[in-house]
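thought: user wants a sequence for this fold. calling inverse folding tool.
action: design(structure=
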């Protein structure tokens, strides 16, 4: 089991390293191809859209056939093939098609990898966070070094070779990963459909949706807000590196103590901290200070993800864990991503970046009331 945990740490590190190479630099790569800002925006918004359909499908299939390793292998192989289409073909329609395919396969692997990590952590007596922190380490390392590496390789046009080169490591590590076949009965469509009748789980997903809209809005529009305030290009990259690095201690330590508190109570506190974060973002106009405030990622997003993943596991039957994780990711990456990106952009155009973040604070404050109120109600009813 120690070997399994370390293999998963390496897989998580290398997988998130690939995203750090691709996502921050892809808009600039498309700009070099002559695409307009609106065209690039559509390309980058395809991801949250296809996540709505992709993650529940692959979560169900992995539960149905009780294999995670080979499902992840297939998704990653198709991710790399989709990236070949992005880099080697010409024309905007083909770029749109292959971006849709890349997101469909790549992001669908996230909840499957999380499910394997949760199971391995439970069996080894450790915590999921101590595996997931390696993802933040991989992202941070590549976020701060990709620009320098590309300069040494001869420019941004060589990003495909760096991206494909990093993928070698996760594929090699997959060879050493032990699959989790599970002992539960094979999942049927009726069992899958029962997830949508689980009122507690659906109510939890709705509260997560409200809480995460401003976060996903920030993911899409933070760099534009910083640029409006006069930030340099180096500050933009460093701001995201700070956010990823700040997650590491939370992933390492929170798992040791969260069992002492109910997940909904913790999520309610996280929602309050998110409210404070967005109020600060809306009131501060110094890009240097805003860049440093990205370290609040450690007490907001990192804590949110550990707690919400743990609670989602508790709300669904063991044989539907991959499905539950996929639906959680669908709400976070898909529904909240589309809503945050589109609605946040509209608010920013009409009321500026400050108005956008003040609106986000209203949403997270609403989520805090709902989460803490639900926790109080469940305690009164004796629901764990």
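)
observation: tool returned 384 residues.
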């Amino acid at each position: 089991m120690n070997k399994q945990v370390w293999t998963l740490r390496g897989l998580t590190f290398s997988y998130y390293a690939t995203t750090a190479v691709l996502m921050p630099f892809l808009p600039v790569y498309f700009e070099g191809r002559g695409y307009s800002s609106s065209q690039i925006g559509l390309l980058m918004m395809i991801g949250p859209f296809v996540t709505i359909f992709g993650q529940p499908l692959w979560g169900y299939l992995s539960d149905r056939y009780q294999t995670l390793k080979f499902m992840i292998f297939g998704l990653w192989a198709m991710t790399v093939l989709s990236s070949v289409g992005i880099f080697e073909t010409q024309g905007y329609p083909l770029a749109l098609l292959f971006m849709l395919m890349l997101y469909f396969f790549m992001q669908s692997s996230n909840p499957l990898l999380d499910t394997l990590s949760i199971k391995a952590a439970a069996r080894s007596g450790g915590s999921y966070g101590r595996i997931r922190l390696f993802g933040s380490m991989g992202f941070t390392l590549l976020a701060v070094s990709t620009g320098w590496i590309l300069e040494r390789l001869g420019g941004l046009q060589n990003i495909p070779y760096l991206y494909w080169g990093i993928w070698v490591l996760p594929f090699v590590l997959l060879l050493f990963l032990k699959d989790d076949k599970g002992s539960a009965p094979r999942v049927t469509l009726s069992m899958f459909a029962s997830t949508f009748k689980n009122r507690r789980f659906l109510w939890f997903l709705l509260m997560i949706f409200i809480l995460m809209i401003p976060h996903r809005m920030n993911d899409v529009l933070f760099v534009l807000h910083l640029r409006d305030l006069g930030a340099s290009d180096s500050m933009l990259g460093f701001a995201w590196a700070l956010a990823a690095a700040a997650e590491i201690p939370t992933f390492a330590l929170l798992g040791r103590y969260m069992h002492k508190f109910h997940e909904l109570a913790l999520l309610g506190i996280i929602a309050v901290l998110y409210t404070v974060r967005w109020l600060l973002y809306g009131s501060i106009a110094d890009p240097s200070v805003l860049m440093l405030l990205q370290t609040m990622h450690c007490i907001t997003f990192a804590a949110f993800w550990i707690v919400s993943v743990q609670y989602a596991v508790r709300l669904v039957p063991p044989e539907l864990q991959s499905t539950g994780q996929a639906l959680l990711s669908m709400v976070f990456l898909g529904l909240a991503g589309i809503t945050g990106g589109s609605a946040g952009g509209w608010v920013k155009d009409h009321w500026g970046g400050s108005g956008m973040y003040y609106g986000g604070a209203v949403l997270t404050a609403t989520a805090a009331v709902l989460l803490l109120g639900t926790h109080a109600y469940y305690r009164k009813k004796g629901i764990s």
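thought: summarizing for user.
answer: Here is the designed sequence. The mean pLDDT is 86.
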